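C-alpha coordinates please, single chain.
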Amino acid sequence: MEKLIAFLNSIFPLTPELEAELITILKCKIFNRSEYLLKAGQIARSIYFIEKGLVRCYYKLGDKNISAWFMKEGDVIISVNSFFGQTPSTEYMQSLEETTVHYISYSELEKLYREFVIFNIHGRKLLTHYYRLSEDRAVSMRSLRAKDRFRWLIENQPDLLQRVPRKYLATYLGVTESTLSHTSPTSK
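Here you go.
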Protein backbone atom coordinates (compact mmCIF):
# COMPACT_ATOMS: atom_id res chain seq x y z
CA MET A 1 0.00 0.00 0.00
CA GLU A 2 2.99 2.27 0.53
CA LYS A 3 3.58 2.40 -3.24
CA LEU A 4 0.01 3.52 -3.85
CA ILE A 5 0.16 6.22 -1.17
CA ALA A 6 3.50 7.43 -2.60
CA PHE A 7 1.99 7.38 -6.10
CA LEU A 8 -1.00 9.47 -4.99
CA ASN A 9 1.27 11.90 -3.14
CA SER A 10 3.34 12.31 -6.32
CA ILE A 11 0.20 13.44 -8.15
CA PHE A 12 -0.81 15.92 -5.46
CA PRO A 13 -0.06 15.85 -1.72
CA LEU A 14 -2.61 13.95 0.34
CA THR A 15 -3.85 15.50 3.54
CA PRO A 16 -3.17 13.42 6.66
CA GLU A 17 -6.93 12.86 7.04
CA LEU A 18 -7.33 11.69 3.45
CA GLU A 19 -4.33 9.38 3.72
CA ALA A 20 -5.74 7.87 6.93
CA GLU A 21 -9.12 7.33 5.24
CA LEU A 22 -7.48 5.68 2.22
CA ILE A 23 -5.51 3.33 4.46
CA THR A 24 -8.77 2.37 6.18
CA ILE A 25 -10.73 1.83 2.94
CA LEU A 26 -8.16 0.24 0.60
CA LYS A 27 -8.18 -3.52 0.24
CA CYS A 28 -5.48 -5.79 -1.16
CA LYS A 29 -5.93 -8.84 -3.36
CA ILE A 30 -3.61 -11.19 -5.17
CA PHE A 31 -4.77 -12.60 -8.50
CA ASN A 32 -3.11 -15.76 -9.75
CA ARG A 33 -1.82 -15.94 -13.31
CA SER A 34 -4.74 -16.12 -15.80
CA GLU A 35 -7.31 -15.13 -13.16
CA TYR A 36 -10.00 -12.64 -14.14
CA LEU A 37 -10.44 -9.31 -12.42
CA LEU A 38 -13.52 -8.74 -14.61
CA LYS A 39 -15.45 -10.63 -17.28
CA ALA A 40 -17.74 -9.30 -19.98
CA GLY A 41 -21.27 -9.00 -18.63
CA GLN A 42 -20.13 -8.20 -15.09
CA ILE A 43 -20.30 -4.68 -13.68
CA ALA A 44 -16.90 -3.22 -12.76
CA ARG A 45 -17.36 -2.47 -9.07
CA SER A 46 -13.72 -1.60 -8.25
CA ILE A 47 -10.81 0.52 -9.37
CA TYR A 48 -7.39 -1.13 -8.99
CA PHE A 49 -3.81 -0.01 -8.50
CA ILE A 50 -1.26 -2.63 -9.57
CA GLU A 51 1.50 -2.98 -7.03
CA LYS A 52 3.05 -6.00 -8.75
CA GLY A 53 2.14 -7.91 -11.88
CA LEU A 54 0.60 -7.48 -15.30
CA VAL A 55 -3.02 -7.32 -16.50
CA ARG A 56 -4.43 -7.60 -20.00
CA CYS A 57 -7.73 -6.12 -21.08
CA TYR A 58 -9.37 -7.66 -24.11
CA TYR A 59 -12.69 -7.86 -25.89
CA LYS A 60 -14.17 -10.45 -28.18
CA LEU A 61 -14.71 -9.76 -31.86
CA GLY A 62 -16.45 -12.78 -33.31
CA ASP A 63 -14.27 -15.73 -32.32
CA LYS A 64 -11.18 -13.57 -31.76
CA ASN A 65 -9.89 -12.03 -28.54
CA ILE A 66 -8.49 -8.54 -29.23
CA SER A 67 -6.07 -7.09 -26.67
CA ALA A 68 -6.99 -3.48 -25.88
CA TRP A 69 -4.30 -2.67 -23.33
CA PHE A 70 -1.73 -4.04 -20.88
CA MET A 71 -1.16 -2.46 -17.48
CA LYS A 72 1.61 -3.20 -15.01
CA GLU A 73 3.18 -2.06 -11.76
CA GLY A 74 2.26 1.51 -10.88
CA ASP A 75 -0.81 1.63 -13.14
CA VAL A 76 -4.40 2.27 -12.20
CA ILE A 77 -6.86 0.03 -14.03
CA ILE A 78 -10.60 0.04 -14.60
CA SER A 79 -13.08 -0.88 -17.26
CA VAL A 80 -13.92 2.75 -18.03
CA ASN A 81 -17.48 2.47 -19.35
CA SER A 82 -18.53 -0.23 -16.91
CA PHE A 83 -17.00 1.40 -13.82
CA PHE A 84 -18.10 4.98 -14.41
CA GLY A 85 -21.51 3.98 -15.80
CA GLN A 86 -21.99 1.04 -13.42
CA THR A 87 -23.15 -0.99 -16.42
CA PRO A 88 -22.18 -4.46 -17.67
CA SER A 89 -18.69 -4.63 -19.13
CA THR A 90 -17.92 -5.58 -22.70
CA GLU A 91 -14.30 -6.25 -21.71
CA TYR A 92 -12.33 -8.90 -19.89
CA MET A 93 -9.50 -8.01 -17.51
CA GLN A 94 -7.14 -10.93 -16.88
CA SER A 95 -3.86 -11.21 -15.00
CA LEU A 96 -0.95 -12.43 -17.12
CA GLU A 97 1.28 -12.84 -14.07
CA GLU A 98 0.58 -13.21 -10.39
CA THR A 99 -0.73 -9.72 -9.69
CA THR A 100 -1.08 -7.82 -6.43
CA VAL A 101 -3.58 -4.97 -6.44
CA HIS A 102 -5.01 -2.45 -4.02
CA TYR A 103 -8.57 -1.45 -4.74
CA ILE A 104 -11.66 0.45 -3.66
CA SER A 105 -15.24 0.24 -4.81
CA TYR A 106 -17.12 2.70 -6.95
CA SER A 107 -19.23 3.84 -3.99
CA GLU A 108 -16.13 4.28 -1.79
CA LEU A 109 -14.44 6.36 -4.50
CA GLU A 110 -17.52 8.55 -4.88
CA LYS A 111 -17.65 9.00 -1.10
CA LEU A 112 -13.99 10.05 -1.06
CA TYR A 113 -14.65 12.61 -3.81
CA ARG A 114 -17.52 14.09 -1.78
CA GLU A 115 -15.81 14.08 1.62
CA PHE A 116 -12.32 15.08 0.46
CA VAL A 117 -12.78 17.57 -2.35
CA ILE A 118 -9.00 17.74 -2.80
CA PHE A 119 -9.09 14.08 -3.92
CA ASN A 120 -10.90 15.24 -7.06
CA ILE A 121 -7.54 16.67 -8.18
CA HIS A 122 -6.08 13.15 -8.10
CA GLY A 123 -9.04 11.81 -10.07
CA ARG A 124 -8.79 14.53 -12.71
CA LYS A 125 -5.04 14.13 -13.14
CA LEU A 126 -5.31 10.34 -13.41
CA LEU A 127 -8.15 10.56 -15.92
CA THR A 128 -6.18 13.08 -17.97
CA HIS A 129 -3.04 10.90 -17.91
CA TYR A 130 -4.81 7.70 -18.97
CA TYR A 131 -7.00 9.44 -21.53
CA ARG A 132 -3.87 10.85 -23.17
CA LEU A 133 -2.22 7.41 -23.18
CA SER A 134 -5.35 5.94 -24.75
CA GLU A 135 -5.47 8.65 -27.39
CA ASP A 136 -1.76 8.23 -28.22
CA ARG A 137 -2.24 4.49 -28.65
CA ALA A 138 -5.41 4.88 -30.73
CA VAL A 139 -3.79 7.38 -33.10
CA SER A 140 -0.68 5.22 -33.43
CA MET A 141 -2.63 2.06 -34.12
CA ARG A 142 -4.88 3.74 -36.70
CA SER A 143 -2.25 5.71 -38.57
CA LEU A 144 0.90 3.59 -38.55
CA ARG A 145 1.92 0.60 -40.66
CA ALA A 146 2.59 -2.71 -38.87
CA LYS A 147 6.36 -2.16 -38.72
CA ASP A 148 5.83 1.34 -37.32
CA ARG A 149 3.27 0.10 -34.75
CA PHE A 150 5.89 -2.37 -33.55
CA ARG A 151 8.47 0.43 -33.36
CA TRP A 152 5.92 2.47 -31.36
CA LEU A 153 5.60 -0.46 -28.94
CA ILE A 154 9.40 -0.71 -28.54
CA GLU A 155 9.65 3.02 -27.86
CA ASN A 156 6.66 3.28 -25.51
CA GLN A 157 6.29 -0.11 -23.80
CA PRO A 158 9.46 -2.14 -24.41
CA ASP A 159 9.05 -4.37 -21.35
CA LEU A 160 5.87 -5.86 -22.83
CA LEU A 161 8.02 -7.69 -25.40
CA GLN A 162 9.44 -9.84 -22.61
CA ARG A 163 6.29 -10.16 -20.49
CA VAL A 164 3.40 -10.63 -22.92
CA PRO A 165 2.86 -13.70 -25.12
CA ARG A 166 3.25 -12.98 -28.84
CA LYS A 167 -0.37 -13.93 -29.62
CA TYR A 168 -1.61 -11.15 -27.31
CA LEU A 169 0.89 -8.60 -28.66
CA ALA A 170 -0.21 -9.39 -32.21
CA THR A 171 -3.87 -8.58 -31.46
CA TYR A 172 -2.79 -5.45 -29.55
CA LEU A 173 -0.87 -4.23 -32.60
CA GLY A 174 -3.55 -5.34 -35.05
CA VAL A 175 -1.31 -7.78 -36.90
CA THR A 176 -1.12 -11.55 -37.28
CA GLU A 177 1.30 -13.59 -35.20
CA SER A 178 3.17 -14.37 -38.40
CA THR A 179 3.60 -10.67 -39.21
CA LEU A 180 4.74 -10.02 -35.65
CA SER A 181 7.28 -12.86 -35.91
CA HIS A 182 8.77 -11.30 -39.04
CA THR A 183 8.79 -7.85 -37.48
CA SER A 184 9.96 -8.88 -34.03
CA PRO A 185 12.32 -11.77 -33.49
CA THR A 186 12.59 -10.92 -29.78
CA SER A 187 8.91 -11.53 -28.90
CA LYS A 188 7.80 -14.62 -26.97
